TrEMBL record:
RNA-binding listed as a keyword: no
PANTHER family in alphabetical order: 4-DIPHOSPHOCYTIDYL-2-C-METHYL-D-ERYTHRITOL KINASE, CHLOROPLASTIC (PTHR43527:SF2)
Residue positions of the active site: 12, 137
Domain of life: Bacteria
Reactions catalysed according to its record: 4-CDP-2-C-methyl-D-erythritol + ATP = 4-CDP-2-C-methyl-D-erythritol 2-phosphate + ADP + H(+)
Segments forming domain GHMP kinase C-terminal: 199-266
GO molecular function: 4-(cytidine 5'-diphospho)-2-C-methyl-D-erythritol kinase activity; ATP binding
Name of the featured protein: 4-diphosphocytidyl-2-C-methyl-D-erythritol kinase
Length: 289
């Protein structure tokens, strides 16, 4: 039996994000397109005979009890009544509080990996049910493919998106998702669209945007600074914030070479992080099990 496994947990960007309503329970109903990108955390799982979940290495400033990877392992262990445990080593590369879904991706990778490592044989629908209890983005990473996303994040339809490269900028400050959604000025009545509407156009069309961007920019002015920086470096690009921020991104034509982008990134303000990333077709965590 396999006793150890290592998985790459990818980030995502939202090509657009519209809030179309709010449910009676307070959850917001959204429409979005989620694009996987090749910016990864690494999740290592090792079987242990002790009946416990341990995470000796994880994200800076996040204690094990609150870490989504530990919570994911515990909820799966309880659901499956599994008698033994696991040691989780999490190498964080994706910025936190950035709208890239890193924590959700890490948790999804734990569910995918432990389902294999513990020999549970659970269906993806069962993992999704568990994942949704921890976070609205986790079902997408369990789905494993680019998707048109609706509901609170649990309604997913596969999309075959064109292969693009993106410049992603983290402006050194995080944004708390709950603060954005609680803001009274947040748009909550965007007119719904259909998948056909999206496919008939381009995500770069001005009619698509991120309804969370104005609020996140108010909370964290660095968001606008990052958008302005991209506009200066790549003036012809369509730039947008991802998720609830604070990361912003722009599609970069393949005619612009990696060395050219590197020269752009050398001009980043101190404390910012930037990467040229590629869009992915599938969550690579599934290639490891």
């Amino acid at each position: 039996m396999t006793k150890k496994i290592e998985l790459y947990a990818p980030a995502k960007i939202n090509l657009f994000l519209h809030i179309i309503g709010q449910r009676d329970d307070g959850y917001h109903q959204l429409q979005s397109v989620f694009q996987l990108i090749d910016w990864y955390d690494t999740v290592s799982l090792e079987l242990i005979e002790a009946d416990e979940i341990v995470r000796p290495v994880g994200a800076d400033g996040v204690n094990a009890e609150n870490d989504l990877v530990v919570r994911a392992a515990r909820i799966l262990k309880k659901y499956a009544s599994y008698p033994y445990g696991v040691k989780i080593h999490l190498e964080k590369n994706i910025p936190m509080g950035a709208g890239l879904g890193g924590g959700s991706s890490d948790a999804a990778s734990v569910l995918i990996g432990l389902n294999h490592l513990w020999g549970l044989g659970l269906r993806q629908s069962e993992l999704t049910h568990l994942g949704l209890q921890l976070g609205a983005d986790i079902p997408f990473f369990l789905f494993g493919q680019n998707a048109f996303v609706e509901g609170i994040g649990e309604q997913l339809n596969r999309l075959d998106l064109p292969e693009e490269q993106f410049l992603v900028i983290f402006p050194g400050q995080s944004v708390a998702t709950k603060d954005v959604f609680r803001d009274d000025t947040l748009t909550r009545n965007h007119a719904p669209i259909t998948i056909s509407d999206f496919l008939a156009s381009s995500w770069k069309d001005p009619k698509f945007g991120n309804d969370l961007q104005p609020v996140a920019s108010k909370i964290c002015p660095e968001v606008n600074r990052a958008l302005d920086w991209i506009a200066q470096q790549a003036p012809d690009s369509v730039k947008r914030m991802t998720g609830s921020g604070s990361c912003v991104f722009a599609a970069i034509p393949k005619t612009i070479s990696a060395p050219e982008v590197d020269r752009m990134l050398q001009k980043l303000p101190s404390g910012w992080v930037g990467r040229l990333v590629r869009g992915l077709k599938q969550n690579p965590a599934y290639n490891s099990v």
